[in-house]
Known about the structure:
Blueprint: H1 2-29, E1 37-43, E2 54-57, E3 60-70, E4 77-83, E5 94-99, E6 106-111, E7 124-125, E8 127-129, H2 134-143
Parallel strand pairs: 1-7, 2-6, 5-8
Antiparallel strand pairs: 1-4, 2-3, 3-4, 5-6
Amino acid sequence: MQNSVLETLLGAVVIVVAAGFLSFAFSVTDSRAVAGYELAARFDRVDGLEIGSDVRMGGIKIGTIRSQTLDPQTYVAIVRFSVDPNIKVPADSSASIESESLLGGRYLAIVPGGDDRVLAPGEEIRFTQASVSLEQLLGKFLGGGITTPQAPAPAAPAPAAAAPALGMPTLGAPALGAPK
């Protein structure tokens, strides 16, 4: 009986430590959703971008992906995301889907423009770049779909200089008919 109480107590301590570690990990990694105003962007493809993924500007998390839908008329993906209310996004900003690493997920990167007008809640970023499929790039590279530029062929040697006209010596050569 004494052993089972000790084991139960030790198990409870392990659970409390694990909960503390998870709490610390979430607070350090900044994985919380960002509440703020909503913006949207349209992309041809959103491979790997998930609801809850980061929205970053200059590498700093400023928002969270809220939803992804497909426009049934244009077949374009519409991504809606929240942005921190303290961050004002210029109207001519661009959005692209970037890869965190070769093995990691994707995030939405916003590159601010220089316009004085800022996007209001509900507006759309007009300039976008869809995600690049690493699998397709590797397939093209390994399968020979990507060609590397060839070095230009060496130029043909210049034709030999025409023989000098009679009576016109070349530099360093005796004139025809001149005594040796």
